UniProtKB/TrEMBL annotation:
<keyword id="KW-0446">Lipid-binding</keyword>
<keyword id="KW-1003">Cell membrane</keyword>
<keyword id="KW-0813">Transport</keyword>
<keyword id="KW-0812">Transmembrane</keyword>
<dbReference type="InterPro" id="IPR002379">
    <property type="entry name" value="ATPase_proteolipid_c-like_dom"/>
</dbReference>
<feature type="site" description="Reversibly protonated during proton transport">
    <location>
        <position position="57"/>
    </location>
</feature>
<feature type="transmembrane region" description="Helical">
    <location>
        <begin position="6"/>
        <end position="28"/>
    </location>
</feature>
<keyword id="KW-0472">Membrane</keyword>
<dbReference type="InterPro" id="IPR035921">
    <property type="entry name" value="F/V-ATP_Csub_sf"/>
</dbReference>
<dbReference type="InterPro" id="IPR038662">
    <property type="entry name" value="ATP_synth_F0_csu_sf"/>
</dbReference>
<feature type="transmembrane region" description="Helical">
    <location>
        <begin position="49"/>
        <end position="69"/>
    </location>
</feature>
<keyword id="KW-0066">ATP synthesis</keyword>
<comment type="function">
    <text>Key component of the F(0) channel; it plays a direct role in translocation across the membrane. A homomeric c-ring of between 10-14 subunits forms the central stalk rotor element with the F(1) delta and epsilon subunits.</text>
</comment>
<protein>
    <recommendedName>
        <fullName>ATP synthase subunit c</fullName>
    </recommendedName>
</protein>
<feature type="domain" description="V-ATPase proteolipid subunit C-like">
    <location>
        <begin position="9"/>
        <end position="69"/>
    </location>
</feature>
<comment type="similarity">
    <text>Belongs to the ATPase C chain family.</text>
</comment>
<dbReference type="InterPro" id="IPR020537">
    <property type="entry name" value="ATP_synth_F0_csu_DDCD_BS"/>
</dbReference>
Length: 70
């Protein structure tokens, strides 16, 4: 019985995008909530959010690259 490795990699990457997708939703939502509550710190929150978004996107790219490596 032969396994379809390409199909498994596609499913694996699809599952790997769930974590970063949920993480981005929570991160951006909480930042907007913080900006609404304290508009005077909006600049700091925005900067911190973009740093967090970069780290979360790295997770998505790692999942994408892992599909090609393994």
């Amino acid at each position: 019985m032969e396994l379809d490795i390409a199909g498994l990699a596609t499913i694996g990457y699809g599952l790997a995008t769930l974590g970063p997708g949920i993480g981005l939703g929570i991160l951006i939502g909480k930042t907007v909530e913080g900006m609404a509550r304290q508009p005077e710190v909006a600049g700091q929150l925005r900067t911190t959010m973009f740093i967090g978004v970069a780290f979360v996107e790295v997770l998505a790219l790692l999942g994408f690259v892992a599909g090609f490596v393994f």
